[in-house]
Design brief:
With 374 residues, the protein is α/β, with parallel strands linked by helices. Helices cover 43% and strands 17% of the residues. It folds into 2 domains: 192 residues, Glycogen Phosphorylase B (Rossmann fold, 3-Layer(aba) Sandwich), CATH 3.40.50; 167 residues, Rossmann fold (3-Layer(aba) Sandwich). The protein has a 7-stranded parallel sheet. A 6-stranded parallel sheet has the order 10-9-8-11-12-13, with helices on both faces. Helix 1 packs across helix 15 and helix 8 packs across helix 13. The chain is globular, with a radius of gyration of 21 Å.
């Protein structure tokens, strides 16, 4: 008889973000080994089907942060399914994840938690209220510490994150499992053809970003750097393959030499059309989109945040710039615009790093071992 695993997540399809992308890669790779039940928010019609029972809760109409609508959880429904499962695997400290941890602990089920983000950094930043950032940070950190310590195991994407949780006094066992990349989907392509495919002039120099447009991603720094670059090089174009917070989307909408696509379920064609990828985030754990961009063989310019500073070797397979420093980013982009050979070499080494060290297959193997252990 297969072990029963309940996945409690507040990030799920059809809304694409790092957590839903992770779920979309891992579930198909483990669904034949376990009897899976997924409890997630109802965010619309799902085109992708899994061999798992999917239970979805309606969302509230109140938006919190960057286009995030919390789920209205029925704890009695969750309790029924948690009583019947062997393992509770939680993805988020949000309504569904919180109830998953509490009920899992109540019914003495092993609760495993994949630490996709540092909630006390992301949540205060995403609210956009400067005066509230400190108290929200304190409250979120306090609540997260309690919930994390209720878990049997915290799965983290890097040793730095494990050490950070230890310093916070989180005593739960920790296990490092890196995120992966689909290296067959995210791969280099002929640049001119890739640009033509999505309607971009082949002679444009494309600076890109993919994923959520949110405050903690600091898109304003990217936009300021791009405006400087556009003044010097009229052939540059900014491609934002994503969407999110409406007021931030407005910053990019209907601007010359800027394309805002909205959230996409397949980012590969957009990465392939980019000459340079920029991650301007203030906080990250792994940054799945940066890993995907690197697998596509793009020159990456990023802030040294989270696990990013472990897999990017500055000057070898990518470049770093200082947080919130649009001039530093501009100078890096200017240098790359004037040195196409450097872009090609950075992209070549970036692809090599992802192929050799990071794949979803490795991630899934580690997750199977963990789920069988508990």
């Amino acid at each position: 008889m297969k072990k029963r695993v309940l996945i409690a997540t507040d990030g799920f399809l059809p809304r694409w973000d790092g957590i839903s992308s992770f779920m979309n890669e891992i579930i198909p790779k483990i669904q034949d080994s376990f009897d899976l039940t997924v409890i997630a928010p109802d965010l619309g019609e799902m085109k992708i089907k899994y061999k798992a029972e999917i239970i979805r809760f309606n969302t509230l109409k109140t938006r919190l942060g960057d286009n995030y609508y919390p789920a209205f959880v029925n704890p009695f429904v969750m309790a029924k399914h948690i009583r019947e499962t062997d393992v509770v695997w939680v993805q988020t400290v949000a309504p569904i994840g919180i109830w998953g941890i509490i009920l899992g602990k109540l019914y003495r089920k092993p609760v495993l938690f994949y630490n996709h983000m540092l909630e006390w950094e992301v949540f205060p930043q995403s609210q956009g209220i400067n005066l509230a950032k400190v108290p929200i940070n304190i409250l979120t950190k306090f609540a997260s510490k309690i919930l994390y310590n209720m878990c049997r195991l915290i799965i983290v994407p890097s040793i730095e994150q494990a050490e950070l949780l230890n310093l916070m006094g989180i005593k739960s066992e920790k296990k490092i499992v890196h995120l992966g990349v689909d290296i067959d989907l995210y791969k280099p392509a002929d640049k001119a053809r890739a640009k033509k495919k999505i309607g971009i002039d082949k002679d444009k120099f494309v600076v890109g970003y993919a994923g959520r447009v949110s405050l903690e991603k600091d898109p304003k720094t990217l936009y300021r750097a791009f405006l400087r670059l556009a003044k010097k090089f009229p052939d540059v174009l900014l491609l934002i393959a994503g969407g999110g917070r409406p007021e931030l989307e407005k910053m990019f909408s209907d601007k010359p030499n800027v394309i805002l696509t909205g959230l996409k379920d397949n980012l590969a064609p957009y990465y392939q059309a980019m000459d340079v990828y920029v991650l301007s985030s203030l906080t990250e754990t792994s940054s799945l989109t940066t890993m995907e961009a690197m697998a596509t063989g793009i020159g990456v310019v990023a802030t040294p945040v989270g696990f990013v500073k472990e897999y990017i070797d500055d000057g070898v397979n990518g470049l770093f710039f200082s947080k919130k420093n649009s001039y530093d980013l501009y100078k890096k982009l200017e240098y790359l615009r004037e040195n196409p050979d450097t872009i090609r070499e950075l992209g070549k080494q970036a692809r090599k790093t992802m192929v050799e060290k990071y794949s979803w297959g490795k991630t899934a193997v580690e997750m199977k071992k963990i789920l069988r252990r508990y």
